[in-house]
């Protein structure tokens, strides 16, 4: 009876099961139209960012073309590349140095995506590990880690980030550290709280009862059950990380002009609001659309991953 | 005696865009004034939905009374306008829910939770309604001085007493008690049931007692209705149904119960599971689990047959005569 | 004691077991000086109302909670203070079935993963094919259809989930199983199926059960002996028939009288206890039941009444038990 | 209650120690030289070395930290140390740090109160409307608006407001100062946008949760009208988590209005802290950050006490000295969800 009942070999069945789960997840996720559209937006932005050099030369978007300063959107101007003179059409206009705003946004997207994902990954790993330690081991670990978290939380986050960059020096890597440091306490808390909730459930007791080791319980039982809130939180955090990075760049920390970054573009645009408002709107909208998309995806994931709605 | 509650062919569905849950499927039931009717059945039989239908409260979230009539003292509940229905709720028909832990608002004193019902329906000034709240508490065995306490300061049994006090505050004609003691310990359950039955007698309230515990029905009810998959499959007096259970499902229920008085080594459970209410079987809903099902049972839905007020919905009893017992 | 024969002699011996929890209000005496033993192949039913410490007892026996003091000997080996590696080995012989079939199995694992996990941990079988064969055999043993091999728990009803929990407990071929309210969240017809299954398994594998429940009819049906707990203490223990025939402790008497009997006209004289259970936090010395006991005398409040043998095999912790004979 | 408050205030001591330690370490790492800042660039090497010795800068890190906490003697810069309530003088302006804090903090409070009031006045009613008709068009529209609010960079929103209201329409000033009420409009709107979005979302989800509770069904079964059910039975319960969030928001607004204050050139404590960091003015940074941390903790304490006044379950729990109050867990969860 057993051979007839099992359909196909073991790995094949596991694959089929994974496919079934993924299909089910996608059905639930795709019911949320806004989230699906946002996913499309993010994918488009990501491919544009990946292929940024194919659209615009990095040297071009970072070199001054002072003759073309403040060109309005769709206007054209002559640009000099080495010896060559080219006629260039500025789709979104030019900034105060005559650099192509669209090109800078496209290259800025690459920076933002990298910052978003790397900082979240860093915070997830370090905050997750500390939170897991505090939640699962408890006692002294818990007290020390949570007190440290409380201390970090009572320093205004933006000041902490500024102070970190000030202390470590103004560089891309230090910006990553400053941003992820501001997210770490959040991860510590969410992981700790989820683990404490899951730890008290009967199925964890049952696992101990059948002789499962601590590491088996953490990895095979607890982690799979707290993955959903972590995925949702991380998606939302990619959005806030991008927002955060632009704020710091706006304050003149982290990524400085002429390197293109949405926040520092706005910082430069600030002085010319009255004169050239188009330099203000495009980069700002790029941030809003990206962050909004991540927030909407996070919302969609929250619904799609909620096991309560699964039945 | 005239029926205080008469439900005919009630059909209630909960539908989402993906599926329709057929919770109640042509249920008919009546309750005589001053009597206690036990409504028994397992999870998903539609007991609570039936009670909520009587109060016209199934709309949350996607429930809808599809067809049927519900007559309360001869008035058609379904024809009432919403504000008329609100007059009925709490004043003429009251309901008690299963879980006393969550049934009370945690931020409002228990006294106020009783008093607001009285104010709503009898238009008493605040002071009088508060006095009445104190009286109601005394009536359910709680000192009136505790009316200023909040629900979390009471134990489970005490909370359920408060819930009962709220329900009886306006002296309703009909009380729908949905598993009123299931969440309580046995000795506390005994206290609460004792108190409830005294009050019911005192006020002459008619009661629908929803429960899965056949013991509670035997000791507290006059009539019994057994529900299965949204239908009443057997109805009669307690003596009739307990003394001579006829529907195979009722018989199966008795067979599943460990008996306190007799020694038995094995139980005789009903095989299989409750049918999926989104995908009910053709014919008699019980036929897939029924040890005596025939081809006819799988094809044709049985209708009621009656003998001396003992009603059974089963092909075995068609034509008013038993065919094979 | 060191070499108990299956079917005779105690498999489990508990002496003066205590489990205290430090809570902000004081020290909670969850289990307070418990002594009992269970013979191999027998079932000890442990009854009591919520908060009496019966679930904690089960967990302390398996060292899911560390006992505060006392001794637990299983198969001649002292369980308390066993080092982790020995404890793991012990757990292959002592298992537990949990109350809540929804919470006690990991919602993210498939049926096969859940049932197969103990086999993996103990490397009981080698190779994928053998592993799958063993899991399927276990599924068959507990009556789970083979097509559910890859199903997720949320696709199944409570009865089937409970069968998964039972299969998981059986996987390591234990001798002793703590059944912690295994049927109390199930409907009666499903409850009967599971009770029959547990009895069959006991017969087939010679299992010894500690059956924890609040339901007296269930415990009567399945147990050889019954232990009654009240606020962390054992107040009466006797063979099942003896206990039901002649309960000696006033609490047991009240408990037995409180059960509603599913029979027409069976309503019996009920002992209604006054007030509710007192707090298990820093209890005063003396009989824990005295505040609710109508027979209590001043001396009952002086010190804990000892558990004394009132009749052969019938133990009771009540100073006045002799007066009721 | 008093004992509880006292214990919470005492808990401030280790928190402040931690805060000062972290900030002090960061400042220590900063590649800048306070002696240089004080003396200017024209000092002789000898004077410079003397100044370093006087300021204790040649000592090991820990000694410097202890100096900072417990004071050191110097003819000009000597002070008694943070532990005695002395925040010292600014390296840059030589002004007493505490004075500068006191002159700027009230300005920040004005902004924060305005922003929170606006956020509550809009967020709560909108959240309730959304929750009473979930998944309707109205609800969807509000949801997207709220998410939009949470996705906008504060500084950009501020600049857009300035462009339209100050530059184009000329209705409102682009720079804000506390003596001109009209000039506060834009910064308050800017600052409240984020909190408004969060409060709206919180009210909505909390209302939806409460409306599902059994006691709401009980209230309906009593025959109460829907408006009474929402107002008396649902809203009060739903507002408990909203209050926590609002309190946390207030704490953040008091300490973190940095960007808004910078853009509107508003003399609040946020601007002062940023300027101090740019100028490596260690006493000023440490003093203001400690001050903000104290305020933040006190606001949290106040929220917890408020909480007890609304929720009787917590009042008794706190009175009987229970450590983990019901709802505390929830509050923690929210804190971690909504910290910005």
Describe the 3D structure.
The complex is a heterotetramer of chains A (311), B (325), C (325) and D (340). With 325 residues, chain B is α/β, with parallel strands linked by helices. Chain B is built from eleven helices and twelve strands. Chain C has two domains: 10-93 and 173-324, Rossmann fold, CATH 3.40.50.300; 107-165, no CATH class. Chain C is built from ten helices and twelve strands. Chain D has two domains: 14-84, no CATH class; 103-339, MetI-like fold (Orthogonal Bundle), CATH 1.10.3720.10. Helix content of chain D is 73%, strand content 0%. Mean pLDDT of chain D is 82; it is low at 317-340. The chains are: A mainly alpha (311), B alpha/beta (325), C alpha/beta (325), D mainly alpha (340). Chains in contact: A-C, A-D, B-C, B-D, C-D.
What is the strand and helix layout of this fold?
The complex is a heterotetramer of chains A (311), B (325), C (325) and D (340).
Chain B: E1 3-15, E2 20-32, E3 36-40, H1 47-54, E4 63-72, E5 75-76, H2 82-88, E6 93-96, H3 100-103, H4 110-122, H5 126-139, H6 156-168, E7 174-178, H7 186-203, E8 206-211, H8 214-220, E9 223-228, E10 231-237, H9 238-243, H10 248-256, H11 295-299, E11 304-307, E12 310-313
Parallel strand pairs in B: 3-8, 3-9, 6-7, 7-8
Antiparallel strand pairs in B: 1-2, 1-4, 4-5, 9-10, 10-12, 11-12
Helix pairs in contact in B: 4-5, 4-6, 5-6, 6-7
Chain C: E1 10-23, E2 26-39, E3 43-47, H1 54-61, E4 69-74, E5 77-78, H2 84-91, E6 94-97, H3 111-121, H4 128-141, H5 158-170, E7 176-180, H6 188-205, E8 208-213, H7 216-222, E9 225-230, E10 233-239, H8 240-245, H9 250-258, E11 308-311, E12 314-316, H10 321-324
Parallel strand pairs in C: 3-8, 3-9, 6-7, 7-8
Antiparallel strand pairs in C: 1-2, 1-4, 4-5, 9-10, 10-12, 11-12
Chain D: H1 2-10, H2 12-29, H3 34-39, H4 45-54, H5 61-70, H6 97-132, H7 137-151, H8 154-168, H9 185-211, H10 214-221, H11 226-256, H12 258-263, H13 269-278, H14 282-310, H15 312-319, H16 328-338
Helix pairs in contact in D: 2-14, 6-7, 6-9, 6-11, 7-9, 8-9, 9-11, 10-11, 11-14, 11-16, 13-14, 14-15
Tags for this model:
heterotetramer, A: 311 residues, mainly alpha, MetI-like fold, two-stranded antiparallel sheet, 13 helices, disordered N terminus, C: 325 residues, alpha/beta, Rossmann fold, eight-stranded mixed beta sheet, four-stranded antiparallel beta sheet, 10 helices
Can you describe this structure in just a few lines?
The complex is a heterotetramer of chains A (311), B (325), C (325) and D (340). Chain B is of the alpha/beta class.
